[in-house]
């Protein structure tokens, strides 16, 4: 469960998020809003990449300020740009590195890596050099690297921007199938069908909060 207590974030003298308050308990939550409305900042608050200037963010009761390491283990984060999170030269090494860092090795770890590669259409890519893959392929590698760690909560910041229709579908099917809670920041409103709740950000505040159809209508009205 995500709990936000009067959270504000100031960056470079600008109030980027302003008094965000509430609890997020639904399994599939979408975040939409205009460019610069604070969506990425909000997403980064959830795994402690950005800390509140005032107020607090708790994940399953853990304060992101004081329990950052535990929060990061719980919250998988997928960036819009896969190059922000790919660190190893080959696909197999990169997808396996998080497990290695957690001292998970041997057959069980290899099986988890193989399953993650298969889920994202990367079987046979193990020895390919990541820098030689396309942007969309790299995004699938980054997603596999996050999912292999089986995070309890998954935060995705515009994950489908680089993806073609097939891989977008693959990502959305994965999000629909997994047990974990999902927070999806997106400009692709079609991706929100079937979501439980959508937050509409506007100028650092939550301007609307409701089911997808209603929230998207509110977002369209704000943009017109
Ligand atoms: N370090 C910083 N210093 C000053 N302003 C910042 C800083 N980081 C972010 N901002 C500003 O904060 C605002 C919110 O940025 P954020 O990236 O959260 O928006 P967003 O809703 O994700 O936008 P987009 O849809 O374009 O990705 C923007 O106006 C941005 O310029």
From TrEMBL:
Domain ABC transporter, chain residue ranges per copy: 2-224
UniProt-listed SUPFAM superfamilies: P-loop containing nucleoside triphosphate hydrolases
Alphabetical list of InterPro entries matching this protein: AAA+_ATPase, ABC_transporter-like_ATP-bd, ABC_transporter-like_CS, ABC_transpr_CbiO/EcfA_su, ECF_ABC_transporter_ATP-bd, P-loop_NTPase
Single GO MF annotation: ATP hydrolysis activity
Assigned GO CC terms: ATP-binding cassette (ABC) transporter complex
Keywords carried by this UniProt record: ATP-binding, Nucleotide-binding, Transport
Family membership: Belongs to the ABC transporter superfamily.
Protein name: ABC transporter ATP-binding protein
Organism: Fulvimarina endophytica
Lineage: Bacteria, Pseudomonadati, Pseudomonadota, Alphaproteobacteria, Hyphomicrobiales
